[in-house]
Design a protein that fits this description.
By secondary structure, the protein is of the alpha+beta class. Among the domains are: 266 residues, ATPase, nucleotide binding domain (Nucleotidyltransferase, domain 5), CATH 3.30.420.40; 98 residues, Immunoglobulin-like; 128 residues, Substrate Binding Domain Of DNAk, Chain A, domain 1 (Sandwich). It is 36% helix and 26% strand. Strands 18-17-12-13-14-28-31 form a seven-stranded mixed beta sheet. α5 crosses α12, α6 crosses α7 and α18 runs parallel beside α20.
Length: 832
C-alpha cells in the first residue's frame, strides 16, 4: 500500500487528507476552503451540486436540498427533495459527499489499487450507523475502506505534532456530536485510556436553541404567524433562511462580541406573513446571549467529560491539557469555560477543522489493507538464516521512535568467531562487524520518517558469508502509534438463561475493553427448526449494560437462521449454536454462526443485523416514541411512589420532550433526540433498579397480580388460576428471602398470562387493529401491506385462526423502537 487517505465525514462539513508515510496533504474544495459543506442540492433543471453551492442554495430552496443527514445515518428515514422529485436514504446522501471528496485527490491516488481509505465515525455511533457509513463508501465507489472512531483519529493528529509526553484530553465538538477521548503518550506511543461523549450535541443543536429561543419568538411578536409556523411547510423557506442566518451570526461571534442575526436575501424572496406583511430579520445578538443559551449543552458536555475522566480513574491534576477539535470550539468563550470548569489547561495543538481527517490518514498507514478485517500491521519482524545455522534476527518493524533494535537469536551453538553487520541502505551508515552471540543486539538510527531499509550480513569464523533467507529488513518510522483503543459500547447477544428462563446479555465485549477483539461463544437452540419451515432462530444483538429488562438496551439487529436458509435436516432444541466474532478497531462486528448438527454456517456478510429490521424511520416515528416515553413515565412514576431517588426525577426530565412529541412531527432530528432521551431515561431507571432491587421487584409483582385479577382471571381455567397463585407465592418468597430467581419466576408468570391472552379472540382482533395503525413500525412496507390485506380478509369471514397467524407474523416483523411487551420476537437461543 502506497497511498493512505483519511476522510472526516462530518455533519455540517467534511474534509479529506492523504498521507504518504512522511507528510500529510490536505485537499481543499474548489472554493479553496479546507472543508466542504455536507450538503446536496438539485436545481430546477435537475443539475446536482455538492458542497458550498449546495449549502448556500439549501436555505433559499429547502425542498431541493439535503443537509444534516449524518444525524440520521443508520435509520430508514427517507430524505425527500420534493422540489426535485427525488428521495434518498441518508447513506445515499453521504455517498455523494464521499464521491466529491474522493474526487479532490490526484488521479494517481484516486485510481490506484494501492490506496486505503479510513472514514471516521463518532464514538457514539451504533452498529447500524457504522454499517450505513460503510454502505455509503461502497456506493461512492471507494475501494479499500475501513472505519475509525473520530476521537482516535484526533489523538493520531495530536501525536503527529507531539512535542512532549503526557496525558491529554480530546474535546471534539462537531456539527452534530461530542466525542471525548483521554490518551496517554509515552515515546510516541499513545494509549486511549477512555472515551465517551454525546451523540446529539453539536453546533447544529446550538443553532436550534438560538432559533427556538430568539428567532422564533421574534417572528411571532413582529409578524402574523401561526404558533406552529416552524413546522409548517408553508414557512419552510422562512425557517431555513432564518436558521442559515443564525449559523452565520454564531460563527461571527468567534471574532466579535456582538453581531446581528440578519439576512439581506430575505428582500429578494418576497416572503410574507398571514396578513401580507413582508418578512425581514434583524435581531441584535451578543456573545453573552449566546453563552447563556448554550449553557445547558456546555454543562452536559462538561458532565460527559467528567464521566469519561472517572472511567479512566483520572482527576484534573492527572491531565496535562485539553485539545479542542471541531468548528464550534473556535469560539473562545466556549473553550475558556470548558477548560475553567474542568481545571485543565487549554491547548491549540491542531487545526480544529481538519484534525480528524489528518489523523485518519495517519491511522490508515497502520492498517494491513491485505487483511479482510482491516487489522493493523504487525509491529514485529523476523529474518532467518538458511542451512544448519539456526539463526534469526528479530526487530521492531514499526515504531514512532527515532531508534530501533535488531536482536540476534540462536537456537543452537555457533562457532567462535562468527560475526554480523547491519548497514543502512538509505544513509550509508554501518554498524561494523559485531560478535555473533545469542542475544547480541545492535541499535540502529531511523534517519527519516517512513520506511528505513537495512541489509544484514553474517560471516562465519573464516570471514565467509552465511546466506540469509532474506537479508533486507524495512523498519517504518511511524508518525504515531496507538497501542490501546477501548470499546465505546458494551455489545452482547440476547439469550435465555435456561429454556423458558429469563433473557440475559451474553457480552461479546464490555465498554472499556481493548479493541480489536476476537472470540467465540456458544449457545443452545431454544426451539426446534426444520429445513424449509417458516420459523427462525434469532441471534439478537444489543448495545448497553441494562440487566433488567434486557430489552431496554438498544437493539441493533439480528442474525436470523431461517428454515428456508437450509435444505436438509432439523435443528433440535438443545443443539449447539456456535458464534465466532471479531470486533474491529472501529467497533464494527464480524459475526459467523455455525450449527454443527446441520453442518450449516451463517455469516454476517449475508444477513447480519437484518439491518432494515432495526432501522427506524424518524420522519414517521413520533407516535411510537411518544407512546414509549409515556409508558416509561408511567413506570417511573409507579416506582417514585415507593422509592425516593434523584435519578428518577432526572429520568422524568429526560422524558419531557419525548412525552410531548406531537403526533405527526416530521423533523427527524427532533424525533431522534426524543428517542435518545427515552433510552437515557431507561438507563437511569436501570441504575435505580440495581440500587433498590427488592422494592422494585415487589412493585413488579404487585403490578402483575393486579393485571391478572382485573383482566385475566375471568378467562383463566381453574388449573391456570391455581398455577398463577402458586407462582405468585413463590415469587413473594423469593423477594422476602432475597433470592436471585425472582426474575425467572416473574417471566414464567408473564408467559402464562400471555398464553391466556393469546387464546382470546378479542385480543387477537384488538392486536391486529393496533398493527393496522402502526405502519411506521414496519420497514418492509410490501410485506406489511400484504399481511394487513390477509388479516382484513380473515376478519371479514371471521377466520380467527388465520388472523392469529397474521398477527404473529406482523409482530415478528415489527421494529422494536421502545418498550416492547410482545412475545413475538423474543430471544430463542439459550446461554450455555
Amino acid at each position: 500500500m502506497k497511498h493512505y487517505v483519511g476522510i472526516d465525514l462530518g455533519t455540517t462539513n467534511s474534509a479529506i487528507c492523504s498521507f504518504d508515510g512522511v507528510e500529510v496533504a490536505l485537499y481543499k474544495s474548489p472554493e479553496q476552503h479546507d472543508v466542504t459543506p455536507s450538503a446536496l442540492f438539485f436545481d430546477r433543471r435537475g443539475n446536482k451540486y455538492v458542497g458550498a453551492r449546495a449549502y448556500n442554495n439549501a436555505a433559499k430552496i429547502p425542498d431541493n436540498a439535503a443537509t444534516l443527514f449524518k444525524r440520521i445515518m443508520g435509520t430508514s428515514t427517507p430524505i425527500t427533495l420534493k422540489g426535485a422529485n427525488r428521495t434518498f436514504s441518508p447513506e445515499e446522501c453521504s455517498a455523494e459527499i464521499l464521491r466529491v471528496l474522493f474526487g479532490y485527490l490526484p488521479e494517481e491516488i484516486r485510481n490506484s489499487k494501492d490506496t486505503g481509505t479510513v472514514i471516521t465515525v463518532p464514538a457514539a455511533f451504533n452498529q447500524m450507523q457504522k454499517d450505513a457509513t460503510m454502505s455509503a463508501a461502497d456506493t461512492a465507489g471507494i475501494g479499500k475502506v475501513a472505519l475509525m472512531q473520530e476521537p482516535v483519529a484526533a489523538v493520531m493528529s495530536v501525536m503527529r505534532r507531539r512535542q512532549s509526553d503526557g496525558t491529554f484530553l480530546i474535546y471534539d465538538l462537531g456539527g452534530g456530536t461530542l466525542d471525548i477521548a483521554i490518551a496517554q503518550s509515552i515515546n510516541g506511543h499513545a494509549s486511549l485510556l477512555a472515551h465517551g461523549g454525546i451523540e446529539m450535541c453539536g453546533g447544529r443543536d446550538f443553532d436550534r436553541i438560538i432559533f427556538n429561543n430568539m428567532v422564533k419568538p421574534w417572528f411571532l411578536k413582529n409578524f402574523d404567524l401561526p404558533e406552529d409556523f416552524a413546522s409548517n411547510d408553508k414557512y419552510k423557506v422562512l425557517v431555513r433562511m432564518a436558521t442559515w442566518a443564525v449559523e452565520k451570526a454564531k460563527i461571527a461571534l468567534s471574532s466579535t462580541e456582538e453581531t446581528l442575526i440578519s439576512d439581506p436575501d430575505f428582500d429578494g424572496l418576497a416572503l410574507r406573513d398571514e396578513s401580507g406583511k413582508e418578512f425581514y430579520l434583524d435581531i441584535p445578538f451578543k456573545a453573552s446571549d449566546f453563552d447563556q443559551l448554550i449553557e445547558g449543552k456546555i454543562s452536559d458536555s462538561i458532565t460527559a467529560t467528567q464521566e469519561t475522566m472517572e472511567q479512566a480513574g483520572l482527576n484534573a491534576q492527572d491531565v496535562d491539557r485539553i485539545v479542542f477539535v471541531g468548528g464550534p470550539t473556535l469560539y473562545k468563550p466556549l473553550r475558556d469555560k470548558v477548560a475553567s470548569k474542568l481545571g485543565i489547561a487549554a491547548s491549540t495543538d491542531v487545526n480544529p477543522m481538519t484534525a480528524v481527517a489528518e489523523g485518519a490518514a495517519v491511522f490508515a498507514e497502520s492498517i494491513d489493507w491485505t487483511s479482510q478485517s482491516r487489522g493493523r500491521k504487525n509491529s514485529r519482524g523476523v529474518v532467518s538464516a538458511k542451512g544448519a545455522l539456526a539463526l534469526t534476527f528479530a526487530y521492531a518493524a514499526r515504531t514512532p521512535d527515532c531508534k530501533a533494535r535488531i536482536a540476534a537469536k540462536l537456537a543452537g551453538k555457533v562457532l567462535d568467531g562468527c560475526e554480523f553487520q547491519v548497514d543502512n541502505l538509505d544513509s550509508g551508515w554501518s554498524s561494523g562487524r559485531i560478535a555473533l552471540q545469542n542475544g547480541s543486539q545492535v541499535e540502529v538510527l531511523l534517519s527519516k520518517p517512513g520506511e528505513n531499509t537495512f541489509k544484514i550480513f553474517v560471516f562465519d569464523a573464516t570471514g565467509g558469508p552465511i546466506t540469509l533467507e532474506n537479508n533486507r529488513i524495512v523498519i517504518t518510522r511511524t508518525a504515531a502509534a496507538i497501542d490501546a483503543i477501548p470499546a465505546s459500547h458494551s455489545i452482547g447477544v440476547e439469550a435465555l438463561e435456561t429454556i423458558g428462563g429469563q433473557p440475559v446479555l451474553e457480552y461479546l465485549i464490555r465498554k472499556g475493553e481493548q479493541l480489536p477483539k476476537k472470540g467465540k461463544t456458544d449457545f443452545k437452540a431454544g426451539v426446534s427448526l426444520r429445513a424449509g419451515e417458516s420459523g427462525e432462530i434469532r441471534v439478537m444483538i444489543r448495545e448497553g449494560e441494562i440487566k433488567n429488562p434486557v430489552k431496554d438496551n438498544r437493539y441493533v439487529g439480528s442474525l436470523l437462521i431461517k428454515g428456508t436458509d437450509f435444505d436438509d435436516g432439523v435443528i433440535t432444541a438443545g443443539d449447539d449454536i456456535n458464534c465466532e466474532y471479531e470486533i474491529l478497531d472501529s467497533g464494527n462486528i464480524i459475526l459467523e454462526v455455525s450449527v454443527p448438527t446441520i453442518r450449516g454456517t451463517f455469516s454476517g456478510g449475508r444477513n447480519f443485523y437484518s439491518r432494515q429490521a432495526g432501522q427506524v424511520d424518524f420522519s414517521d416515528a413520533s407516535r411510537q416514541i411518544s407512546k414509549d416515553a409515556n409508558a416509561m413515565r408511567e413506570r417511573i412514576e409507579v416506582v417514585q411512589k415507593k422509592i425516593s431517588d434523584p435519578k428518577l426525577e432526572k429520568a422524568l426530565e429526560k422524558l419531557d420532550g419525548a412525552s410531548t412529541l406531537e403526533d405527526g412531527e416530521n423533523d427527524p432530528e427532533t424525533a431522534k433526540q426524543a428517542m435518545d432521551e427515552v433510552l437515557e431515561a431507561k438507563r437511569l431507571l436501570a441504575q435505580v433498579r440495581e440500587e433498590h432491587l427488592a422494592e422494585i421487584n415487589q412493585i413488579d409483582l404487585d403490578s402483575c397480580k393486579e393485571f391478572f385479577d382485573k383482566t385475566l382471571r375471568q378467562y383463566a381455567t381453574p388449573p391456570e388460576e391455581s398455577s398463577f397463585d402458586n407462582l405468585v407465592l413463590t415469587a413473594q418468597r423469593s423477594i422476602d428471602e432475597n433470592r436471585k430467581d425472582f426474575k425467572s419466576i416473574l417471566d414464567e408468570i408473564w408467559r402464562k398470562n400471555w398464553q391466556i391472552l393469546w387464546r382470546q379472540d378479542w385480543f387477537v382482533v384488538d392486536r391486529f387493529k393496533r398493527h393496522t395503525q402502526e405502519s411506521y413500525l414496519f420497514p418492509d412496507k410490501r410485506q406489511y401491506e400484504k399481511l394487513v390485506a390477509e388479516g382484513v380478509t380473515a376478519l371479514k369471514v371471521d377466520d380467527i385462526d388465520s388472523l392469529r397467524r397474521v398477527v404473529w407474523m406482523l409482530g415478528s416483523a415489527k421494529v422494536g423502537v421502545g418498550v416492547n411487551d410482545d412475545m413475538f420476537a423474543a430471544a430463542n437461543i439459550v446461554r450455555c
